[in-house]
Design a protein that fits this description.
Blueprint (H helix, E strand, L loop, with lengths): L1 E2 H4 L5 E5 L5 E2 L2 E2 L10 E3 L12 H6 L4 E4 L10 E5 L2 H12 L8 E6 L4 H14 L4 E4 L3 E4 L2 E4 L7 H13 L4 E5 L2 H5 L10 E4 L7 H4 L2 H13 L6 E5 L5 H5 L5 E6 L6 E9 L2 E6 L2 E5 L4 H16 L4 H9 L9 E4 L5 E5 L4 H14 L6 E5 L9 H11 L3 E4 L9 H9 L10 E3 L3 H11 L5 E5 L6 E4 L2 E4 L2 H19 L1
Parallel strand pairs: 4-5, 5-6, 6-7, 8-12, 8-13, 9-12, 13-14, 14-15, 15-16, 20-24, 21-22, 21-24, 22-23
Antiparallel strand pairs: 1-3, 2-7, 9-10, 10-11, 16-17, 17-18, 19-20, 25-26
Helix pairs in contact: 3-5, 4-10, 10-11, 12-13, 13-14, 15-16
Length: 492
Amino acid sequence: MILLKDILYKVSLKSTSGDMNIPIKDVQFDSRKVSNGDLFVAVKGTQVDGHQYIQAAIEKGAVAVICEEEHAPINEVTIVQTESSSKALGIIASNYYGNPSSKLKLVGVTGTNGKTTTVTLLYNLFLKLGYNVGLLSTILNKINDTELPSTHTTGDALQINLLLKKMVDANCSHCFMEASSHAIDQNRISGLVFDVAVFTNITHDHLDYHHTFDEYIKAKKTLFDSLNPDSYALVNVDDKRGTIMLQNTKAGKKTFGIKSMADFKARVLTNSLLGLELDIDNYKIWFNLIGKFNAYNLLASYGVAVLLGENPEDVLIALSSLNPVSGRFERIPLKRNVIAIIDYAHTPDALDNVLKTIENVRTRNEQVITVIGCGGNRDKEKRPVMADIACKLSDRVIFTSDNPRDEEPEVIIEEMKRGVRPSDFRKTLTIVDRKEAIKTALALSKNEDIILIAGKGHEDYQEIKGVKNHFSDKEILLELESLMSNEKGDQG
């Protein structure tokens, strides 16, 4: 057990009442999980205010409470008031688990697009280089080769620090994690010690949460503002907000880019549906990843590795052997000489990047058929924008359901179609059932056509009215392709 006074190290305190030397059995911010001897942290969340459950936590055995609001002294319960309970929770979690982030090289990657690909590339790269490595990503969490399911881009502060402690216990030397804007804004990474923070890019997304683009930018910038002087801030200087991230940071300032002068510079030599050839720091290297946007992800990964002291040539050779991340421009050749691409693109910028990559490598003798929807209970402003992008850069577009969540998929699709120009309506179809939409795309495709299935990528579920039903675009695609091929064989 750890004493309360030790668990509060570096927490900004406003007032205290009660014994600060009491031992703490566990830390909870969900009153339902509290048991005898625990510390309860009353956090003001987006849906629930933990202050409403202080009494319930005490009744379940909490011996100490952290809160933001003034609270009357309670016999035999220590009350600690702080400026921010969520920020305090991050620091407390770190202290409780022995400050694991300071015992390994921790790299945080933030940005609208490219986070998952970059952290996964780094994870696989450092495995190739012979290290024990941890991964915290949207797709999954990993401790060396052990996989742990992931439900959020960034878990809560207790989950993060517990996983980091397990990594330290497993002799991991490095951890690569996504840092979402929600997690940064909610102080879920408070108390963590980063060796490198990476900014990939920023475009309009999550405005349902942040409300304004400026607030979204500020959330990302908070990560860089909190860095220590002996860490590095590595930013994409081709994105004009990259230099904003560097303002006020105490960290060493480093840049990467393709268009602009940068510390880590790349030039695209070949961009095809087979891969990328890049010139990075005068090394000409072939990579298995596709698209200019992946050139940035590769370059960011290279920059991080070099900043962490790795040999540049060794890094590039190892990177060149890595395969694309699941659901990120994942190329699937089909039997009828049709190429299917599955991509997680769920923002206008990501969709534009994917379709422009296809545009740059296509022969013009084929159709590009795009299957796309938009998620429910998320930023509605991007729906018509994404529909417009899909129509401009595709020959056929099938609007369908994504993860409708609590919304009606038909309503989401109608909001998307507001962005379709009159001249483009003839190329669109609406098929609400996603499996039927994929089946129709296959039926419409001919020799050498390209099918893009966008929006869900690696996800293996479809969320409808609070229920996650198993649904994998890749599984459905391969199942339908097999059935349709067999049917054609039977007919022949």
